[in-house]
Every structure is written in structure tokens, then in C-alpha cells.
Amino acid sequence: MTPREKGFLLLTSHLGDPQRRVLTTAQLRTLADRVQYARQPREDRGLREEDLLQLGYNREMARRILALLEQEEVLEYYRKQAARFDCVPITRVSPDYPPLLRRRLGLDSPGCLWAKGDLELLRRPAVALVGSRELREPNREFAAAVGRFAAEQGMVLVSGNARGADRTAQDACLEAGGQVISIVAEELSKQPRLRNVLFLSEEDFDEPFSSQRALSRNRCIHALGWMVFVAQSELGKGGTWDGTVKNLRFGWSPVACFRDGSESARQLEELGAYLVEEGDLRNFDILPENQEMLEFW
Q1: What does pTM read for this prediction?
Q2: Which residues neighbour 96 within 8 Å (Cβ) at sequence distance 6 or greater?
Q3: CATH level 2 (architecture), domain 119-296
């Protein structure tokens, strides 16, 4: 692990201590932005308080950043604990970090992801699936169809492992011989090591579930898929609606919403989503942006 990779981990990981005051995504973005245009210290010395003061930080924040970076022994112990559960870190400057996250989210992409499973899946083209936990039957059938479609088209399915749409699509994809990237909001260490599945976590490998984590990881699901399929969304509320609206606002990836006759689908169409039906999946060429996907990959 390079010094830069260690730096990202030290600044963004709780290292098993919930009280460790790591940098938020916004704070890490600010630091990366300031460092980008600053003169770097000589290689024969480490970062000093005066360097951070010159970047515009006050003394308190400068000392906080340095204190985080000094805990290398704690980091090494934490990495060894993670290895016991087959969990490995991928920082924003690591070779295995998903290029689509850097490209689409920029400095708002996670400083570090923890992974469990086959990292090769990050190098393959993918589509994503999001949706409600409580599904109407036609919407459940659509979610399953997207999972099978991904397998048949040789694309990885990206989802969030939540009850409802996520697991319906993931199970259908795996049953059809496909591969899945599942971005979880619960403890990564407790996920089983499964064939054809890569589990990712935006937080530490032992971080428990929280609603904030569930909301935060949605941007990664949307950004990792060439196209995002929405099986079902509640109008104006919930993680599916929130993540999809943000995607449409920032243009992370094209959005295809199941044409279920709902007001939420109609409003997502007004915001820029395409409305599709299960039958459209059988002829992928008719879906929008297909040529762009082929050229990109």
C-alpha cells in the first residue's frame, strides 16, 4: 500500500473507533482541491502543520488532520483485522478503484471503499437496479427481468442488497448465471463470500447499518451502472426517489424507469428518465443511449 493510499484510509476510516473524527466527503473534497494547486513538500519530509496553514486551514483543523495521519500503527492493526474477514480497502488513488466513480462523481466519490469478493467485476460493464422494499407484483417481475437481462447481456448487475427490488434482481441475475456488485449499508464483514458476487461498503468493513449509510451509497449505485433501472419508487420520498432525482439532476447515468402507470414514474419521466416496459429488455438495442454504452466500453 502506497503512502497516498494510507493517507486516504487514515483520513476517511474510523479504524474500528466510532469516535474517530474522520473527514467528511465534503472536507476530503476541499483538502484534495487545495492540495491539487499547492506546492508539495519535499519527499524527504512529511506533511507539517505549516503546510496546512498555508493551504488556508486554521490551526485546529490542521492539527486534526495531522493527528489522523499519524495513526499508522492503528491502521495496520485494522487492516490485519479486515484481512481475517477477506475485506480489503480500495482508496480513490488505488489501481482497483472504479474509474466510473472518479469520472462521474469526481471529488465527491468515496475516499475509500471496502471490498469483499472478486475485484475483477469492477472492470466489467454494468447496469444498476434500484427500487422500493415493498413491491407491487408487476414491479417485482420487472426487477427480476432486469437481473436476468443483465446476465443474458453479459453485464454485471449493481444493486444495494436491500429487501425488495434489490434482492429480487440480484437473485434473478445469479440464478441466470450472472454476476453482481452489491453495495451494502450494513457490516461488510458479515457478508458471505459468494461466487460471482462482489460486496462493497462505503464505510469501514465493520460499520453497522444506518439510514445515512443507506442514502449515501445510492450515488455509488447510480454512478457504477452504465444505465440505472428503477423498478418502483415512492413519490417524493425514500432512498430510491432521492437517489434517482439526484442522478437526473447531476447526470451521473441514464435512468430507465418501469412504466407502471404511477405518478412517481410520470414525474421521473418529466425530470429526464426514460419509461420502459419488461418487453423492452428483450431488445436492448431499442433502449436509449445504447450506442454510447458500446463506444464507452
Answers
A1: 0.90
A2: 90, 115, 119, 122
A3: 3-Layer(aba) Sandwich (3.40)
